[in-house]
Amino acid sequence: MSNTFHHVDVNHPLLPEKAREFQMFINGKWTKGHSSENFVRKSPAHDIVVSTYPAGTAEDVDDAVKAAREAFDSGKWSRISGGARATVMLKTAQLIRENLAELALLETLETGKPLTQSRGEIQGAADIWEYAAGLARSVNGDSFNNLGDNMLGLVTREPIGVVGVITPWNFPFFIGAERYPYILAAGCTLVAKAAEITSGTTLLLAGILKEAGLPDGVFNVVTGSGSVVGQRITEHSDIDMVSFTGSTAVGQMALQASAKNIKRLGLELGGKNPQVVFADADMDAALDGTLFGFLFNTGQCCVSGSRLLVERSIHAEFCRKLVERAKKVQSGDPLNESTQIGAIITEKHYQTVLGYIEQGKKEGARLLTGGHAVRTDKGLFIEPTIFDDVTPEMTVFREEIFGPVLCVTPFDSYEEAIRIANDTCYGLAASVWTSNLDKAVQGFRDLKAGRLWVNTTIAGGPELPSGGFKQSGIGRESGSYGLDEYTEIKSVHIQLGKRAKWLAE
């Protein structure tokens, strides 16, 4: 074993005695819906059942959409003041913090991520709800008083309507927080579908929103599979917009399904994100950031810095020190407070990641550390894995692995670094490590990605937008741009005085 591993404690006092049974949330009420079937979720770290959910149907989606449409058309949320919306959202942030322990534990049990990480994400989500509450008061338009004495022009913003939100399994609560509060701040209503294996905290949020005073029908949650519930959301003719976060392949399917009523789509998709380290970088900071960048959330992160491009003059030293540090990373039981990386989400994905590692070996990438599953009686764990001498032709260079795997490629010049970094169909995120200001500015100008970091990685807050270039997505979430995504713009021309006649009497 190449790193410190905390063995799984199946008798940990935080583990539940029995699985938590959830229901869907539609029109302000808890319901089992139209299906008698349930979905069972096991902790990927402890191999015990922690949650059960109804396997939602297309009819359940129809019920949720009907509730959301009636709530929107009634104006009980869409037409109230921004201040009234902000009051509910601020109360939501408060309640999220009050329920931090419950939310974080459930998030950890369902995703396998360290409990310390879950706590940080829940707290960060509360911050986003507070920020978006402020935006609810600042939805504005424009005026044009330069159209002549007889005309006044106005540009107004109004909520787009009913929004379908499909969130992934890796950050179910946090990614929801990057969308739900902005949707609500704009005055929209919504139907949420969390990933079928990590729906728990989204359903807890539904209860929090009801307690905070959100009117019935404004926020609805349907649990179930993407092929049934997700498909119905994307094709539903009474949904005005869909926000989808997930793989590029499924995003392409969402595009096709949304054509039925040409609804607006917001897509945050895959990434194969470069971390570019120049020889003049602060090596200690770059080493720590590179390690965090590819191991955060066990590499199951769309903005994971999974490709390391390092200047050749420091390549050997950097790789040697990076391997030394990787062996000190603490993995294992996510309920252990010292654990830094946890479990892989499912058996299927576990095998997929191991398959990519074997593919890298076969294609000639040089394995520096890791490369194996962790031998343990419980849980799905993979060692931090680093490949060197990875070329652009290799599968591990081009495809999103979504696991604790880093691919290292040396470069000789700035131009070569940018060319290699941009040699991908993705454009979600990138990091530049350098002490040269000119190089840093030129780097973030030249790199084709929606989110850039200079001398850090996977950092930020709700003020700045997120989203991707190329096949990494469409649209932006968070910040004031995130609110704009969920509004329609209306142009109004107001005639002042008598209008000139077109037809003479």
Structure, described:
The chain has about 500 residues and is α/β, with parallel strands linked by helices. The protein contains 16 helices and 23 strands. A seven-stranded mixed β-sheet has the order 17-18-19-15-14-20-21, with helices on both faces. The protein has a six-stranded mixed β-sheet with strand order 11-10-9-12-13-22, with helices on both faces. The protein has a three-stranded mixed β-sheet with strand order 2-6-5, covered by helices on one side. Strand 3 and strand 4 (about 30) form a beta hairpin. Helix 1 packs parallel to helix 8 (about 225-235), helix 2 crosses helix 7 (about 200-210) and helix 10 packs across helix 11. The longest helix is centred in the N-terminal third of the chain and has 22 residues, at about 115-135.
The largest β sheet comes out as: 7 strands, mixed
Number of helical regions:
16
Shape: globular
Strand order of the largest sheet: 17-18-19-15-14-20-21
| Structural category | alpha/beta
Please give the radius of gyration in angstroms: 24 Å
| Mean residue pLDDT | 96
**Count of individual beta strands:** 23
Parts with pLDDT < 50 across at least 5 consecutive residues = none
- What's the end-to-end separation, in Å? 94 Å
Instruction: Classify the helix fraction into a percent range.
Output: 25-40%
Indicate the multimeric state: single chain
As a percent range, the share of strand residues is 15-25%
